[in-house]
Amino acid sequence: MEDIYEIWNTIKQGINEADGKIIGKEKNTTRNSFCDEECQVILEDKERAYYNKIINRNTSQNEQEYTSERKEAIKIFRQKKKRVLYKSNLEQIEIAYTDNEAKKFYQKVNSIRKGFIVSNKEKSPAKVV
To answer: Which residues in the chain come in under a pLDDT of 70?
Structure first.
């Protein structure tokens, strides 16, 4: 039984080495490209307020400070993310325009013009069996 595991491990190791040589390794990309030094400072302030609330006494003042820091962080993150998405959409519009892709171009233009639309689909009531 151990021979099977040893054989499998050698095959697996060979595949992984060949994969690394042929394809190469991808570098980890940052998920939040909008996050900069200002975001890091705000995040640290929010974490400090949270630990102050948890580690120190859970007073109403500590609770209020944490709540205000959290709201401020969410507000800043939302604004920065919206700016990055807007720039990304503009780049996609320019690409669609230069490539003469009229449908994609007008879809992107209309999505920016109309903004974020939430669909309000009515849910049917649950049926009791």
So the answer is: 1, 27-33, 116-129
Question: CA 66 to CA 64: how far, in whole Å?
Answer: 5
Q: What is the DSSP string of 58-105?
A: --HHHHHHHHHHHHHHHHHHHHHHHHHHHHHHHHHHHHHHHTT-HHHH
**Vertex 13: Cα angle to 31 and 11 (nearest 5):** 130
Q: What pLDDT does 37 receive? A: 83
What the block records as the tokens of 15 is 């595949």
Report the predicted TM-score, pTM, of the whole model to 2 decimal places: 0.55
Element (H, E) at 112: helix 102-114
Please choose, from the candidates 31, 118, 32, the residue with its C-alpha nearest in 3D space to the C-alpha of residue 78.
32
Cα four-point dihedral sign 20, 17, 14, 29: negative
| Separation CA 62–CA 83 (nearest Å) | 32
* pLDDT tens-digit readout, 79-93: 888 888 888 888 989
